[in-house]
Design brief:
Elements: E1 16-18, E2 27-29, H1 41-52, H2 72-80, H3 93-109, E3 119-123, H4 126-147, E4 156-160, H5 165-173, E5 177-181, H6 192-197, E6 203-209, H7 221-235, E7 241-244, H8 252-255, E8 268-274, E9 286-290, E10 302-304, E11 311-313, H9 323-360, E12 364-366, E13 375-380, H10 389-397, E14 405-407, E15 416-421, H11 428-447
Parallel strand pairs: 4-5, 4-6, 6-7, 7-8
Antiparallel strand pairs: 1-2, 3-9, 8-9, 10-11, 12-13, 13-15, 14-15
Helix pairs in contact: 2-9, 3-9, 4-5, 9-11, 10-11
The structure holds pyridoxal-5'-phosphate.
Pyridoxal-5'-phosphate binds next to helix 4.
Protein name: Glutamate decarboxylase
Enzyme class: lyase
EC number: 4.1.1.15
Length: about 475
């Protein structure tokens, strides 16, 4: 949402001066009003292009989980499909077919008992996927309650306080009480006992995260499932699990094959992932898959006929680009299981090596080591009182690196960390350059008499962490 109102006297409300470009006549164009007339395409292109030079260098952005590199063939396919509207399944049946194939591939990757029985769809990202999965949990619970003749007006959802902001939005937008499990001591995510403690007859589900946004750690999905099985035996309460695998659902199947976190657990009703994170597609595409038709109540699916045919749709928006879905299919085809495993292995190797090297520098202590999602968080040792993680973040910005610093949520708001997300394209070589820049920044930071920055300065983008 464009919320920054231009101020009077502010330089930005001046018209944009388009000085001779390609030797054309100087001209000005308004910044915030539609220009009166037309201009040459080449001039318009250059104006926009030049403004965008001020954006950051995506490859040096270690805050985002989102893919910033794609093969030329993927880019070409995306450009070829720029006009394809995902919703127009009648007009673009083959795009719809490729979407379906991706859903089936994910269902197999996530060990659905019968991949032909799963339902699922692409979305704009994990946030929309979370809304759809949450709605399915809510609607199933409502049906169950109404069938029992019981009130269905006070649903709640249990999750760790470390959930990404999309779950907070889901609870708020769709009027579900969020029941957050706080962090305690060295536990930075959900624990089975704390989750079960908060469940009651109004609980629509428990969200578990594979690859916490705060530190990259996997939540113990199987243990939460076992604790909920036990709850069912003791009380009859039958609470389903949704796995938010925004990043981890595209890591664990390739690198942690022994880990049981997916549809192998009968309690897991649905799983989401971001195709544009470790699915390796440029933004924005996400996926949500339900174990079977029972997990997605049919009355949430709308059938429309105005595009020709009778189209089932379950989505928050209508029109949406098809290019990313096609790029996802391209990646699946191009990389296969082995290719994905190699890419994710490299990310994890870079993350764990860099984490160990940062820990060896002296002032830092690891919270995680990049051995789950290739993401790690680290703090300053307690004895360091003359500079903060926020100072470190700013110092690295001077070298072009975007490494966010933020405080953890309750009950660890005393803890401030830096976080590094290693993505495809962040090589050992780039990691060495970053390490060198951290090393170079340290003597100056050590010479500081007192901290210069505090959590109030934590403006850096932290990918959905509430700062
Ligand atoms: C665990 C988790 N869930 C959901 C999201 C939201 O994902 P998206 O950006 O695809 O909407 C993120 C984003 O970082 C995340 O880390």
């Amino acid at each position: 949402m464009a919320s920054n109102q231009p101020q009077r006297g502010d330089r930005s409300v001046r018209d944009l001066e388009v000085n001779p470009l390609f030797s054309r006549e100087p001209m000005t164009v308004p910044r915030y009003a539609l220009p009166d007339g037309e201009m040459e395409p080449a001039t318009a292109y250059q104006v926009v292009h030049d403004e965008l030079m001020l954006d950051g260098n995506a490859r040096l952005n270690l805050a985002t989980f989102v893919t910033t590199w794609a093969e030329p063939q993927a880019r070409r396919l995306m450009a070829e499909c720029a006009e394809k509207n995902m919703i127009d399944k009648d007009e673009y049946p083959q795009t719809a077919e490729l979407e379906l194939r991706c859903v089936h591939m994910l269902a197999r990757l996530w060990h659905a008992a019968d991949p032909r029985r799963v339902t699922g769809c692409s979305t704009t990202g994990s946030s929309e996927a979370a809304m759809l999965a949450g709605l399915a949990l809510k609607r199933r619970w409502q049906h169950r309650r109404r069938a029992q003749g019981r009130p269905a007006d006070r649903p709640n959802l249990v999750m760790g306080v470390n959930v990404q902001v999309c779950w907070e939005k889901f609870a708020d937008y769709f009027e579900v009480e969020p029941r957050y499990v706080p962090m305690e001591g060295d536990r930075y995510h959900l624990s089975p006992a704390a989750a079960v403690e908060r469940c009651d007859e109004n609980t629509i589900g428990v969200v578990t995260i594979l690859g916490s946004t705060f530190d990259g750690s996997y939540e113990p999905v199987a243990e939460v499932a076992a604790a909920l099985d036990d709850l069912r035996e003791r009380t009859g309460l039958d609470v389903p699990i949704h796995v938010d695998g925004a990043s981890g659902a595209m890591i664990a199947p390739f690198l942690d094959t022994h880990l049981v976190w997916d549809f192998r657990l009968p309690r897991v009703a649905s799983i989401n992932t971001s195709g544009h994170k470790y699915g390796l597609v440029m933004p924005g595409v996400g996926w949500v898959v339900w174990r079977d038709a029972d997990a997605l109540p049919d009355d949430l699916v709308f059938h429309v006929n105005y595009l020709g045919g009778r189209m089932p749709t379950f989505a928050l928006n209508f029109s949406r680009p098809g290019a990313q879905v096609i790029a996802q299919y391209y990646n699946f085809l191009r990389l296969g299981f082995d290719g994905y495993r190699r890419v994710q292995r490299t990310c994890r190797d870079v993350a764990t090596r860099l984490a160990a090297q940062i820990a060896a520098l002296g002032p830092f202590e690891l919270i995680t080591n990049g051995g789950q999602a290739p993401v790690f968080a680290f703090r300053l040792r307690e004895e360091i009182t003359n500079f903060t993680v926020f100072d470190v973040s700013i110092a690295l910005r001077e070298h072009g690196w975007l490494v966010p610093a933020y405080t953890f949520p309750p009950n660890r708001t005393d803890l401030s960390v830096l976080r590094i997300v290693v993505r495809n394209g962040f090589s050992h070589d780039l990691a060495d350059l970053l390490l060198e820049d951290i090393r170079r920044a340290l003597p100056r930071l050590h010479r500081q008499h007192e901290p210069h920055r505090d959590p109030g300065d934590a403006g850096a983008f932290a990918h959905g962490i509430k700062t």
